[in-house]
Amino acid sequence: MLRYKLLSAAVSSFLLIGTMNVAYASSPVLQEKAFIIQPDIQGEVKAAYARSTVDRLNVRTKPNLTASIVEKIGKSKKYEVLDTQEEWVKIKLSDDSSGWVFHQYIEYEKAKPASAEVKPAGADSTETQPAAGTDTPQNQATVVNIVDVTNLRSGPGTEYDITGKAQPGETYPIVETEGDWYLVTLPDQSTAYVASWVVQTDFLSRNGIAIPPAITDAEFAPALYIYHTHNQESWKNIARNTKGTSVDDPEVNITLVGKHLSQLLQEKGIPALAGEEDITKRLKEENLNFSQSYKVSRKAVEKAMQEHPSLSYFFDIHRDANVPREKTTATIDGKSYARILFVIGTAHAGYEENKAFAEALNELLNEKYPGLSRGILTKSVHQGNGEYNQSLSPGSLLMEIGGTNNTLQESLHAAEAIADVFAEYYGSRNASAPDKQLAAVKATKRNA
Quick one: fold of 214-432? Predict the structure, then answer.
């Protein structure tokens, strides 16, 4: 039994909380969920009022993501619930008009609210605001937060002179972004550059994204380790780095899918651990080439194995490249999923065991989610890395979830399917263990 209590994650959309211009369907985020009063048998909510759980929640004219935004509300006020429709809640606004909000960013209350006032669009007294006269889009960061002693440089690169040191806890407004560097304003109104991979920004909070807290219980014995060799892989509709063939983002990327999968499995009683190693940051810090990503991620896996001897399974989760959307997307029971491709490296002696593991999960996927799997792809050393750290354990897999043309929401839906399938696989494997032990005891008695 696990010795901790896991905070569940709600899945919703960037478009619910930001005014992002996207090409595809909405992209959900992970948001720590407050206690919610559940609907009754007839599906009606037994609560009179609703409150937003994020700082900016879009109120729309109709219960869908393509409807116009009429207001933005914050956490401070409660609003009368007028109606519910599937995943949407209709609320009464302060001017007696009404609008629809997404249910997973709402907590319900029965208490009578104070007069409901609407936050002006973009207003947020708890966040550092851009300078007067500027209009910062929701999908851009406005400040950097220093988390460790950081070099301030005269230009956007490590070859430029160091002009000073930023200390942990300091915060600087962002003037502009240049590649992997931020130009920031210092207290004396001068400017300097800081590397994006050594700081944090307010991007997640500006978009209402709360990253699930890491599990720190010393008695936690994980069975599955989830990591990301290419941890900044993102999606075209939200990525902030789209130079050349790159579709990357330092904060909104494939790691959110891994965290979601970890939480889903933990909720099913399976001890899963989402790794925190930032491979991209490590490559830059050590001045290593991108081709050495698997060498760096292998060290992270080996470290996890040393710290947690209980680990038996290892998922390296990626997002595929610019594959046509029709090939990487499946619709099942009206829900859009990013399709899953299993990749097995054959450049090591034990690859057949990895392949058998992939085949077992692939079979379950085909049974429970027809059309979701893209199958199993074997790759030799002449077709890529060829090994993908899979020689470390027969329970190692690399999974490509969707491609650049999918969305975060579709990828999270895929994670839900993986959690469902792996839970069944894991349960069947562990359920048989006591029977095997009993059989061994009986055989020993017979031989005696």
Answer: Aminopeptidase (3.40.630)
